[in-house]
Design brief:
Elements: E1 2-5, E2 9-12, H1 17-28, H2 32-42, E3 51-54, H3 60-64, E4 68-69, E5 75-77, E6 89-91, H4 104-111, H5 113-126, E7 129-135, E8 145-151, H6 158-167, E9 178-184, E10 193-197, E11 202-206, H7 212-228, E12 232-244, E13 250-259, H8 265-269, E14 282-287, E15 290-293, E16 299-301, E17 306-310, H9 319-325, E18 331-333, E19 336-337, E20 343-344, E21 355-359, E22 364-367, E23 370-373, E24 389-396, E25 405-408, H10 410-419, E26 421-423, E27 436-438, H11 450-467, E28 472-478, E29 485-491, E30 494-501, H12 508-520, E31 524-527, E32 533-538, E33 541-542, H13 554-576, H14 582-591, H15 624-629
Parallel strand pairs: 3-7, 5-18, 6-10, 8-9, 9-11, 13-24, 24-28
Antiparallel strand pairs: 1-2, 4-5, 7-8, 10-11, 12-13, 12-14, 12-15, 15-16, 17-21, 18-21, 19-20, 22-23, 25-28, 25-32, 26-27, 29-30, 31-32, 32-33
Helix pairs in contact: 2-5, 10-11, 13-14
Length: 644
């Protein structure tokens, strides 16, 4: 039985009063009227005499006065805070935009927001600010105008506006909403926080001097605003790749590259991929971070000036990125620069999150004796009608049994977007190294319901598949490795993780060959243990050396597989509580059939004779993979979650 309560949606009639009391208490800490009063009081202050409106070019001199000059003529700075303060970020407004679950720290921040907003008003009246006005995107319909207000009581803060301004363009005549970002690095670290008011187009960063808060503040706002108007904001790089097909004809594809931090999203958005540029092939970069997907398959780019990239770049492997980083136009944040002005992009002794704003048109490679720029003419992807095809590629990083490439059905592509999978690394979170991490759409900047984002992605791609059945493809690429073993040990009463067997990441040339072959449609795929088609040959080269059975026993493979399925099941349940279409929930439930049942069985389809252990291969019962791929008349289980 279901009951309807205004403002709370549908709840089960048997729900406990304690749960209702808890929900009411959480709702009570939000004060929508107070947020509205803050905005009314803020707007008149933005034209105060203490706020100086400035042009981007006027910021160069005060910025470089506090920077370190490199041997290339570029400049670098160090910030006190070297990454986003996501744990201290809260979304304020109606229930539609709030975080689905608050930590105790976030509850404390939300509860104190009224007095903090009062303090912001006081600081906006008294402290010296600069106001930089720039524009996002470059198209005929959606071009947010971004107003950045940065306190410059500390002169080093000029570089924040200078660096951020490079990612955007001058304000033109194109239509767009007005966004506001207030950045006060001088706020005490005890009150360090980011306050997001999506419904008022305002973001506020306090107590941090990391430029990434401004970049993501505006882009997060732009994605939410686009979602509200029928588009879909994506945390994805975009590019146009031209390849020769098996018949010698040039084909042009639009490609989306989804990926969490450190999975290789920027690398593979900007990599030449070993294509034959002399014969007309090429990889042309449109975006490396955020875009806005439309119903016709087009994608509007966000940053028209430069990219804010992680700088762990090897010149031998990431040529275009390295060339942009060593141009005098680059601007560095927390990159190691030695006493002689040499930036070392692989030295992370002081900071594992070195960043740089690079100019998009400085991405170039050398072909023979010629320099070829690999920036696309436009930051926007054209409609699917104008292309030979569209590729949605999801990058993950795992080091155990995940194949380096999987070809997905459209629904499996939706599930890949839902799960947004990768693993923690020793560089990011040593205590969780090797453990799964999942973020819808690989997008940690979603405002409101994550289920709503998945539903919207489903609607758009399924419409495209229906209209262009042979032009939309989905892949998942694993840029991690194969065969890693990590063991938990107790040392002095503390649980630690030690490498028992290390693995190298998939070679860049192998991953380039995989992606080239997929675009040319010449790679070989067979049904595999994940219920998808797994790569068996890339451009004619056998991939058998990366078969997980070379590294693990069947029992170990089953354990890893079971762990992945359990993680997916739990995560799907959590997102379904925020509203998922029944057909997505049913597809997820069906996918869990790959989990091992009973004793170890063969989970790689069609093994070669002699590959399985004694007695295996003679089972009368089909393996989970076989069951997944066989047609079935089974009616999916009813969804166990609310569909809001």
């Amino acid at each position: 039985m279901l009951l309807h309560l205004d403002g709370l949606g549908f709840i089960m009639a048997g729900i406990g009063l304690d749960t209702l009391d808890l929900e009411a208490k959480v709702a009570d800490i939000y004060d929508v009227d107070e947020y509205r009063r803050f905005v009314d009081n803020l707007l008149p202050l933005l034209g105060g005499s203490n706020i100086r409106r400035t042009r981007h070019e006027d910021l160069r001199e005060p910025a470089i006065n506090t920077g370190t000059r490199t041997k290339f003529g570029s400049y670098g700075w160090r910030s006190s805070v070297s990454s986003r303060i996501a744990p201290k970020t809260v979304y304020l407004g109606s229930p539609a935009v709030r975080l689905p679950k608050l930590t105790d720290l976030q509850k404390s921040i939300v509860g104190k927001v009224p007095e903090q907003l009062h303090s912001v008003l006081h600081l906006m009246r008294t402290m010296p600010f600069i106001h930089l006005r720039r524009q996002m995107c470059n198209n005929s319909e959606y071009n947010p105008i971004c107003n950045l207000y940065v306190s410059v009581a500390d002169q080093k803060n000029y570089r924040i506006a200078y660096m951020w301004g490079r990612t955007m363009r001058k304000v033109g005549k194109e239509p767009g909403p007005e966004f506001t970002m207030i950045h006060i690095p001088e706020e005490h670290t005890l009150r360090q926080q980011v306050l997001v008011l999506p419904e008022h187009n305002i973001n506020i960063a306090l107590g941090t001097d990391y430029m990434g808060e401004d970049k993501k503040g505006f882009l997060r706002q732009a994605m939410w605003y686009a979602d509200e108007r029928g588009m879909l904001g994506l945390h994805s790089g975009t590019k146009i790749v031209t390849v020769l097909d098996p018949h010698g004809e040039l084909r042009r594809y639009g490609v989306f590259m989804f990926g969490l931090t450190a999975t290789g999203k920027s690398t593979w958005s900007c990599h030449p991929m070993g294509l034959d540029y002399r014969r007309g092939e090429g990889n042309m970069v449109s975006q490396d971070d955020i875009c806005f997907l439309k119903n016709d398959g087009a994608a509007l780019g966000s940053e028209d000036g430069g990219f804010f990239v992680k700088t762990d770049v090897d010149p031998n492997l990431q040529e275009a990125l390295y060339n942009a980083l060593t141009d005098k136009s680059a601007m560095f944040e927390n990159v190691m620069i030695d006493a002689d002005g040499n930036p070392d992009f692989l030295d992370e002794a002081l900071c594992a999150n070195g960043r740089s704003v690079i100019t998009r048109d400085k991405l170039w490679i050398k072909v023979g004796r010629k320099k070829i720029n690999i920036s696309a003419e436009s930051i926007n992807l054209p409609t699917l009608e104008e292309l030979d095809g569209l590729i949605f590629a999801f990058i993950t990083r795992r080091n155990t049994i995940m194949p380096f490439a999987q070809e997905l059905t459209p629904m499996q592509g939706v599930l890949a977007y839902l799960w947004g999978e990768s693993t923690h690394s020793f560089a990011s979170q040593p205590a969780k190294a090797g453990e799964s991490v999942r973020i819808v759409g690989t997008d940690p900047f979603i405002v409101g319901s994550r289920g709503r984002k998945v539903n919207r992605f489903y609607d758009i791609v399924m419409q495209l598949v229906d209209k262009y059945p042979d032009k939309v493809r989905f892949f998942q690429y694993n840029t991690g490795g194969m065969g890693e073993v990590i063991k938990q040990v107790e040392e002095g009463g503390v649980t630690k993780k030690n490498f028992i067997r290390k693995t190298s990441r998939v070679p860049i040339n192998v991953m380039a060959a995989i992606q080239r072959g997929d675009l040319k449609k010449i790679n070989g795929y067979d049904p595999g243990m994940f219920g998808t088609k797994e790569i068996v040959s890339a451009e004619g080269k056998d991939m058998g050396e990366y078969d997980p059975r070379r590294f693990y026993s069947q029992e170990e493979i089953d354990t890893y597989l079971q762990d992945i399925v359990e993680g997916r099941r739990e995560y799907t349940g959590m997102i379904a509580d925020e509203g998922l279409k029944d057909e997505i929930v049913a597809a997820a439930e069906k996918s869990y059939e790959i989990a091992p049942r009973g004793k170890a069985k063969a989970f790689v389809s069609k093994p070669e004779e002699g590959a399985a252990g004694e007695g295996e291969g003679k089972q009368e019962e089909a393996s989970p993979v076989d069951r997944f791929w066989q047609p079935t008349n089974r009616i999916p289980s009813p969804p166990r979650w609310r569909n809001r």
